[in-house]
UniProtKB/TrEMBL annotation:
GO terms classed as biological process: lipid biosynthetic process
Cellular component terms (Gene Ontology): membrane
Residue ranges of every copy of the Fatty acid desaturase domain listed in the record: 74-342
Molecular function terms from GO: oxidoreductase activity, acting on paired donors, with oxidation of a pair of donors resulting in the reduction of molecular oxygen to two molecules of water
The protein's name in its UniProt record: Acyl-CoA desaturase
InterPro entries: FA_desaturase_dom, Fatty_acid_desaturase
């Protein structure tokens, strides 16, 4: 089952958790005290770059009958949409730049280049996902109501299509964003609490989708066709725009899945939410998120969500500050012996797909248990080893704290020893025969 007692799982006392929270509060205060013109300049330069790429892409599509110009135009448009959605739209709507008091880049006024209405996304993402991160039954981002990503989710024959569903979600991700707020599953089951509200939300989605389709597949391609007096130019510009949108969709899916579904991104039960303090919320974000390695170009193209742990800790701090914040968060993980879940981008993404593939099957066909699997863990994973204390302690030999990370490494060491013994036994048996 998912984690039911977060401090116990983390091998921390209540006092430890509050001390960790105080240190994270200090990081927030330090960043808030120094943000200023340097950060504003970063944002303005990002906007210039994004708009320049969009203009370049649209201009190249006037010559889309040429294959090279088609490819360059689609690529430029794809980059433009990635930056607008991830480094601008996502972060602006989190309120990361509200401190500037600039209405153009304020969370209340930004409408992104995406089929999902900004107001809907801010509710499902900012409020629901970030408040109830990875809490089963409360955070719809745990599989998006479509994909089984933890053994806590009861297997159904529908889950056999896990890989197909995620492929479709990857290719049409912006439409998945558009319908998420509608909660179509509840509507189909007749459980939506407010039918009139659903109708209004559905209308809002329809209007936004219509605007995006008109802009991307009618207006701009028509301009290219008119300029060249050619229906072929219109069609080629339209397919290049479709390719640009698909590039954005695939990339967004990859970045988001790397931050939420690799091994080590833990899940939690509803009881964790009872009387949760700010410090306990911090700890849940640290355990429920994952990073991936990135240099500056990859960080920029991911909206700095390569620092997903730091983003979940401080969702409203400027994204360009997450790299420096990550240094201090790593230090805290060392101090409290907590895992800092990260890895190469392709490895993290591959782990997400592996989990999706595995969990298309019933639990009886899977190895490990519902308390001690790569994608599903709980505090009970340690209970079979009574010598493993579930409270952090100081190693008298080294003076270092021994906590969750040490406990996990200890379990892995035991497994390796058991496997080695089994192999030796099998080898000895073969030799004796």
């Amino acid at each position: 089952m998912a984690i039911a007692d977060i401090p116990e799982y983390a091998h921390l006392t209540d006092a430890d958790v509050e001390a960790l929270g105080a240190e994270l509060d200090a990081i927030r205060r330090d960043v808030e005290s120094v943000r200023g013109e340097k950060d504003a300049k970063y944002l303005r330069n990002t906007i210039r770059f994004q708009r320049g790429m969009e203009l370049t892409g649209r201009a190249l599509l006037f010559g889309a009958r040429d294959r090279k110009l088609w490819a360059l135009g689609a690529g430029a448009l794809g980059v433009s949409k990635i930056v607008e959605n991830m480094e601008l739209g996502h972060n602006v709507m989190h309120g990361q730049w509200d401190w500037m008091n600039d209405p153009e880049v304020h969370s209340t006024s930004w409408e992104w280049d995406n089929t999902g209405p900004s107001a809907h996304w801010k509710h499902t993402h900012n409020f629901i996902h970030h408040k109830y991160t990875n809490v089963l039954g409360m955070d719809d981002d745990v599989g998006y109501g479509l994909i089984r990503v933890t053994r806590d989710q009861r297997w159904k024959p529908f889950n056999l299509g896990n890989l197909a569903y995620n492929t479709l979600l990857m290719l049409f991700f912006q439409y998945g964003v558009a319908v998420q707020h509608l909660e179509l599953g509840r509507v189909a089951a007749g459980k939506h609490p407010n039918p009139d509200e659903f109708k209004k939300d559905l209308k809002d989605v329809g209007i936004k989708v219509g605007r995006q389709i008109s802009k991307d597949y009618v207006v701009y391609p028509a301009l290219a066709g008119a300029a060249n007096r050619s229906w072929t130019s219109w069609g080629r510009a339209m397919t290049a725009t479709l390719a640009g949108n698909t590039i954005r969709n695939i990339w967004t899916n990859a970045v988001i899945f790397c931050g939420h579904f690799p091994d080590g991104a833990e899940k939690f039960t509803k009881q964790d939410m009872e009387n949760e303090t700010q410090a306990q919320w911090y700890l849940r974000q640290m355990l429920g998120s994952a990073n991936f390695h990135a240099g500056k170009p990859l960080a920029f193209m991911s909206g700095n969500l390569c620092y997903q742990i730091e983003h979940h800790l401080f969702p409203d701090l400027p994204s360009n500050r997450l790299a420096e914040i990550s240094v201090r968060v790593r230090e805290l993980c060392e101090k409290y012996d907590l895992p800092y879940t990260t890895g190469p981008f392709l490895v993290q993404y591959a782990k997400s797909w592996r989990t999706i593939a595995k969990l298309s099957l019933p639990n009886k066909y899977l190895k490990a248990t519902t308390d001690d699997a790569p994608e599903t863990a709980s505090e009970r994973r340690f209970k079979s080893h009574p010598e493993q204390r579930l409270v952090a302690e100081i190693d008298p030999a080294t003076g270092r704290r021994r906590g969750l990370r040490s406990a996990i490494n200890s379990l892995r060491g035991r497994r390796s020893s058991v496997i080695s013994i089994r192999k030796r036994t099998q080898t000895d048996g073969v030799r004796a025969a």
